[in-house]
Specification:
The chain is 45% helix and 15% strand. The strands form two sheets. A seven-stranded parallel β-sheet has the order 4-3-2-1-5-6-7, with helices on both faces. It has a four-stranded mixed β-sheet with strand order 9-8-10-11, covered by helices on one side. The structure holds nicotinamide-adenine-dinucleotide (NAD) and magnesium ion.
Amino acid sequence: MSQKRIAIFGSTGSIGTQALEVIEANTDKFSAEVLTAQTNEELLIQQALKFKPNVVVIGDEKKYTKVKEALSRTDIKVFAGENALLQVAAMDCYDLMLAAIVGYAGLKPTLEALDNGKAVALANKETLVVAGDIVMKKALEKRVPVIPVDSEHSAIFQCLVGETRNRIEKVILTASGGPFRGKKPNFLVNVKRDHALQHPNWTMGAKITIDSATLMNKGLEMIEAKWLFNLKPEQIQVVIHPQSIIHSMVQFEDGSIKAQMGLPDMKLPIQYSLGFPNRIPTNSPRLNFKTYSTLTFEEPDLKTFRNLGLAMEALNKGGNMPSILNAANEIAVYAFLRNRIGFLDMTEVVEQTMTKITYIESPTLEEYFESDGEARSFAASLIQL
Ligand code: NAD
Ligand code: MG
């Protein structure tokens, strides 16, 4: 079998580095042909020297010279800047894009990859939150798969293998509940960034870790599920499952529920997405039922974690509302990470932005971009950034 050539957009992040570990352990199956990073040029250089890709992109143009010089003895092509991401996404040197950039910035490169007929392993959930209809339509038109990497959606995807003829009654997304499960607003009001960055079960990038603490992450995942699996809002349920062993479930019309389980380890969904439809053997630790003798389930506390309710509202409303929610949330999370606003203020920023920006029922791609920009400016004005 020939190697599958992988382009990792966001190779220096939590998903990107774990994907490179998967590739390193399976050089007979995969090669890394494109690596991209926004600011961490040191790690990008190290990765490039080790994996010898065809091309690297450094987002921050000020760092171009340093990367170029460090790779001058190799034949690795070096590009810089936002437009370079799009040019590289259109290149022939890879077969599958792992979309592992965080946030809205991942949307355009992913669309470009699909437009060029590339399969996409999608970690970047914000892409589907912002413009899920356009992204999925593009994939259908080009007849290329969008394979989920997010653990919940990978679980659902795995449960659906062999079920093409059977209708989904509903999907049940599991959520760990994050570090503040069971806490109330009087506690949350004083939460600081360092505490919020400590997730009980997963080690991830800063933005998604904060989203997990506010439960916005689960809301974004409901919207992601809608587009990936063509579901109506009422077919998507969230249940809190603190042990993170069941990664999500699908309920069929006969009442049967299929679940995908395993220890919480993102390498599993990452490698499933790269190897699909084949499973790749690993020696990673196995689930021991003696250690996890109790699996528990709870209703989410929508009164305390209002972000989840706001995301449900955006899911139900559709149109550009999820893109407004996402833009305001990105601004709010980065302000919280810089200690500019408090934990509960993030919800206020999102809620106020959702009421302010003009609603469009069926936006074009341009209108999605515009809504994103407007929502960002308004959210930033609330915080006085
Ligand atoms: P991260 O912050 O660790 O890494 C982000 C990557 O994107 C880095 O390589 C960075 O250089 C690049 N990047 C950041 N801003 C950019 C910009 N403006 N333009 C171009 N590149 C940029 O994030 P992560 O935790 O790896 O998450 C990546 C995506 O995967 C997110 O959308 C997240 O929701 C999703 N995801 C992550 C996990 C996880 O376990 N980390 C799980 C499920 C889904
Ligand atoms: Mg997830």
